[in-house]
Amino acid sequence: MEECVRCNNPISPHTGREIEGLTYCSKCADSHNQSLKQKKAEVQKEKGEILRERDAIEQEMRTITEEDTRHIIVSTTDTLETGQIIDYIDVISVQDVVFQDIHIDPAQAEGPHDLAEKLFRNRIELSLSKLRKRAYLVGADAVIGVHIDSSMEQKPEGEFTVAVAIKLNITGTAVRLTTHL
Ligand SMILES: [Zn+2]
């Protein structure tokens, strides 16, 4: 006679239930499904909370101006000469993914490569300004050890169009300094 994989009790003929290739008695099958349902609901709830939190951050980011974040230093190094680090707040990051068609004007001197480069530099600038805003939100004076991971792909789409895909991931450590600039 077959045994339930969960409680090891023998399963009477034709009452076993198969879940993901394993055979359960009907009682264990019910409680297994119940706990799966519960887990799903928990994950769903967590997802909702993360999304709400993200929305709130985005909302707050929109109210921060360039002026607010002008004083925030962004550096690729781990130390700064302009001030002593007194507090490591958090690792912060900004992601950006762009798919864009670039249309080339044959009368213009700028070729597809130049235009793609220009778009790429713009997206980095935008992401760095977002990073400053994130830093501002957590009360930082500087972001140190900033690292930019990036990739750009270009694919011709017809004679005067180039499809560009850009992926950016910028991370750094938000810190507080003894002296403000
Ligand atoms: Zn069982």
Describe the protein's topology:
Elements: E1 17-19, E2 22-24, H1 26-63, H2 66-69, E3 73-74, E4 85-103, H3 112-137, E5 142-156, E6 161-177
Parallel strand pairs: 3-5
Antiparallel strand pairs: 1-2, 4-6, 5-6
The structure holds zinc ion.
Zinc ion binds next to helix 1.
Molecular structure report:
- The protein has 181 residues and is an alpha+beta fold.
- The chain has two domains: 47 residues; 108 residues, Hypothetical protein apc22750. Chain B (Translation Initiation Factor IF3, 2-Layer Sandwich).
- The strands form two sheets. The chain has a four-stranded mixed β-sheet with strand order 3-5-6-4, covered by helices on one side. The protein has a two-stranded antiparallel ribbon with strand order 1-2.
- Zinc ion binds next to helix 1.
Rg calculated over all Cα atoms: 27 Å
Specify the CATH class of the largest domain: Alpha Beta
Distinct small molecules bound, one entry per kind: zinc ion
Oligomer: single chain
Parts with pLDDT < 50 across at least 5 consecutive residues: none
Instruction: Tell me the CATH superfamily of the largest domain.
Output: Hypothetical protein apc22750. Chain B
CATH architecture of the largest domain: 2-Layer Sandwich
**Would you report the number of β strands?**
6
Q: Count every helix, treating DSSP H or I runs of 4 or more residues as helices.
A: 3
**Helical proportion, percent range:** 25-40%
Q: Given the C-alpha coordinates, what overall shape results?
A: flat
The chain-level mean pLDDT equals 90
The biggest beta sheet is recorded as: 4 strands, mixed
| Strand order, largest beta sheet | 3-5-6-4
The CATH topology of the largest domain is given as Translation Initiation Factor IF3
Query: How many individual domains?
Result: 2
